[in-house]
Amino acid sequence: MPERTPRERFPIKFYLIAMLFIIFDVEVIFFYPFAVIFRELGLFGLAEMGTFVLLLLVAYFYIWRAGGLDWEEEGSIRRSVSRTILERARPTERIGA
After folding, report:
1. Whole-model pTM?
2. Among residues 21, 48, 76, 96, which one has the fewest Cβ atoms lying within 10 Å of its Cβ?
C-alpha cells in the first residue's frame, strides 16, 4: 500500500506517446534481419520490405495527422476547430420552414 499520494499524475498523453514509441521502435528491429540476408532474399525480399516500410509510413502519418504525436493539447484544439468549421459549413435544416 502506498504511504502517500503522488505529487502529480502523469497525463494520459505521456503513456500514449510512450506506447507509440515502443511500437515503432519494435518495428525497426525487423530491419536488422532484412539487412543481414538481403542478398539471399533478392527482389522478393526487397518488395516485401518496401511493403513493410510503406505500411509503417502510412501508420505514422495517420497518427501524426490525428494529433497522436502532439505533446500539448494543440492537436485536440486543432481537431475541435476543424470540427466546428465543418459543422458551420454544412447546411442546416430549419425546423418549421
Report:
1. 0.56
2. 96
